[in-house]
Amino acid sequence: MKLTFILLTLLSLNSFAQSINRQAVLKRHNIKVNQFDSLSSISLGNGNFAFTADATGMQSFPDAYANGVPLGTQSTWGWHSFPNTENLRIEETQKVYDLEGRKISYTVQLKEPERAKKAVEYFRVNPHRLQLGNIGMEITKKDATLVAVNDIKNIRQELDLWTGILTSSFTVEGVPVKVISFCHQQRDALGFSIESPLLQTGQIKIRLRMPFPNGQWKDVGNNMVKGNMQTSYFTPRSWSAVFSAAIDSANYSIYTSWEGKAQIQQKTDHYYLIVPGTGKQFNFTVLFIPHQIIPVPFKFQDDIKISSSQWKKFWTSGGAVDFSGTKDPRAFEIERRTVLSQYLTKIQCSSAYPPQETGLTYNSWYGKPHLEMHWWHAVHYAQWGRVELMEKSLDWYFSVAAKAFAIAKRQGFDGLRWQKMTDHNGDEAPSSVGAFLIWQQPHFIYMAELLYRAKLGKEVLNKYKDLLFATADFMASFPSYDAAIGKYKLGKGLIPAQECFEAVQTFNPTYELAYWSWGLQMAQEWRKRLGLPREPKWDTIIQQLSPYPQKNGLYLAAENTPDCYQNGSRYLTDHPAVLGAYSSLPAVHGLDTIVMRQTLDTVWKVWQWKDTWGWDFPLTAMTAARLHLPEKAVDALLMPIKTNTYLVNGHNYQDERLTIYLPGNGGVLNAVAFMCTGGDADHTTNPGFPKQWKVKWEGLKKLF
Question: What is the CATH T-level fold of the domain 31-78+130-315, as seen in this structure?
Answer without folding.
Answer: Beta-galactosidase; Chain A, domain 5 (2.70.98)
